[in-house]
């Protein structure tokens, strides 16, 4: 095991069978980021399927932790299956699922209140699954809740937004995620919910937190796809933050609410749990802040030079070329 | 003239006829912000029309400097007229006009290149007026340039954006302003123009600045209207900044390109020019950074307490209750 000194600490570079054997002996639970670790786009990295099988054979607990909130866990499982990666629903943690759980468990979001969603069906499904009412999202902005008749502003005539019924007094949270159908009207509605002075007293006082909560699934500024990067969740809600001057509670990696969700479902020994990811400032920071050891794989975004920079945010415990490298382990 | 000490300096509070007489004797040129100074929504403040007439009678040069880029100068003049405020086209400076001039004069934007607009007709008209080609804006995102057939992304299938013709190789600048029809596709297109690696060599090298310029009319986070505030230009482009990691050149107040436009049209003596506005961090900062004396009117956003705060950004030269106060001057 080669030790490498970086400005912010020391990491171990794993490269041979002995290194990987020590690694799997040292941990019981393996948390994996997906994009850039297991696959890129629709291409699974070589060796990954076999490595995951070997870990399961060794009775290791395998979990998948993704910031992708465009899909529900059910949709994500379809994706796992289509790529030939074995996974069960209870092994998959997405920022959409974590967001729904956060509303329910941490905020104890009242049953008679609604969430205004700026996001996609994956997020809506997860809210449904925990029994939280929501409006907005894919349902459309119009009074008829018909996406085809969405409310439209002409020039700077904002009067359509003033029609009775456009704003719902029972909204007590705005939840944002990636939304490829984001538009000005959604931003304007979120803005008003988050800045309104005339919330009913009940909403204002709230069971937990007054007024209207501002939550975001994740802060990734870009969204990776086969056709390259496109604006991500953090870019979708940037305008809502800018207009309201409010900073949202962000659920996904590198923030801890996401990890709290994992630990609410599994009573892991943190010292026997390893976070595996390809991004220093999301995956590795996420694990490190949560008291986990971390493994950076160089098959995705972050390269080794990033750790060696003076301004590196965090140092992983281990670094290796790719997850597939572990395939040298005995079957 | 009452002198008031603030943490960052001293200002004079103007309240009687003698104070105002000294003020008009001291300056030849008066630059006015509009919203919150002349009017609010469609209501002209009492005394304002008379004060402007008196200044003109005294042969003072009167100019209007607004960050509102939703309208062209022609449209703005219609608004002035409808409110009974006398103004000529050459007296009106908007951030849309300043942006078009900046492209033409400062960047010497090539005639065979195009600007991708995230903005409204006012901005498009000003680009037309200086002979700069543009796409996007109100023209629609579709290949047919028909806003009714706008390109649409379903889920996270970005393939419609990959159709040939969606991106125009001759785009060499992205210009953003307030856009009440902002949407994800516009953000995604701006993102790609601003991050593309495959710009033609000619665009990359450019006459001035390589790749693709990123310009914004103004950075106001909210847009004032009769029905209260709504997200402003700064909120519309926040997501583009977040996704690209690029900081735009911002033209409007408090930035100096806007003032450069005024001084390109008029050879004023800066020491005889007064900027009048209602916002400390835009209007007053704008004037102060440009070496002008400033008058804060308390009829709009900023109240006196803001100047007296420890963290105040700037101190105006003068403060008065409202522009209408000057109506005590002799006719």
UniProtKB/TrEMBL annotation, chains A, B:
Query: Keywords of this protein's UniProt record, alphabetized?
Result: Hydrolase, Magnesium, Metal-binding
UniProt keyword Hydrolase, yes or no: yes
Among Gene3D superfamilies, the record links this protein to: HAD superfamily/HAD-like
Coiled-coil residue windows: none
EC category name: hydrolase
The protein's Enzyme Commission number: 3.1.3.41
Reactions catalysed, semicolon-separated, are: 4-nitrophenyl phosphate + H2O = 4-nitrophenol + phosphate + H(+)
Offer a single GO CC term for the protein. cytoplasm
Annotated substrate binding sites: 253
GO-annotated molecular function: alkaline phosphatase activity; metal ion binding; phosphoglycolate phosphatase activity
The record's comment on cofactor binding reads: Divalent metal ions. Mg(2+) is the most effective.
For the ligand (Mg(2+)), the binding residues are 33, 35, 278
Q: Which PANTHER family match?
A: 4-NITROPHENYLPHOSPHATASE-RELATED, HALOACID DEHALOGENASE-LIKE HYDROLASE DOMAIN-CONTAINING PROTEIN 2
Q: What is this protein called?
A: 4-nitrophenylphosphatase
Organism, per UniProt?
Malassezia psittaci
């Amino acid at each position: 095991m080669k030790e490498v000194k970086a400005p912010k600490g020391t990491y171990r570079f794993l490269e041979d069978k002995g290194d990987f054997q020590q690694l799997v002996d040292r941990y019981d639970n393996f948390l994996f980021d997906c994009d850039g670790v297991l696959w890129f786009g629709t291409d699974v990295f070589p060796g990954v399927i076999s490595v995951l099988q070997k870990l399961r054979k060794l009775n290791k607990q395998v979990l998948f932790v993704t910031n992708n909130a465009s899909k529900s866990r059910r949709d994500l499982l379809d994706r796992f299956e289509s790529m030939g990666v074995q996974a069960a629903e209870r092994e998959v943690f997405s920022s959409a699922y974590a967001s729904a759980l956060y509303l329910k468990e941490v905020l104890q979001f009242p049953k008679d209140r609604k969430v205004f969603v700026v996001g996609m069906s994956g997020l809506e499904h997860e809210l449904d699954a925990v029994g939280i009412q929501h409006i907005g999202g894919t349902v459309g902005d119009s009074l008829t809740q018909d996406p085809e008749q969405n409310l439209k502003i002409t020039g700077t005539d904002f009067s359509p937004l003033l029609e009775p019924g456009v704003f719902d007094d029972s909204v007590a949270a705005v939840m944002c995620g990636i939304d490829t159908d984001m538009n000005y009207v959604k931003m304007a509605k979120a803005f008003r919910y988050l800045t309104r002075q005339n919330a009913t007293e009940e909403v204002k006082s709230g069971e937990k937190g007054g007024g209207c909560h501002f939550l975001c699934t994740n802060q990734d500024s870009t969204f990776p796809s086969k056709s390259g990067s496109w604006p991500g969740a953090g870019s979708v809600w940037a305008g809502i933050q800018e207009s309201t001057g409010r900073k949202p509670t962000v659920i996904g990696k590198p923030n801890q609410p996401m990890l709290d969700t994992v630990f609410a479902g599994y009573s892991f020994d943190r010292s026997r749990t390893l976070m595996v990811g390809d991004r220093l400032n999301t995956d590795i920071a996420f694990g490190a802040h949560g008291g986990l050891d971390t493994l950076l794989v160089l098959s995705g975004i972050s390269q080794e030079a990033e750790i060696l920079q003076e301004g590196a945010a965090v140092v992983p415990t281990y670094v290796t070329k790719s997850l597939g490298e572990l395939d040298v382990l005995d079957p």
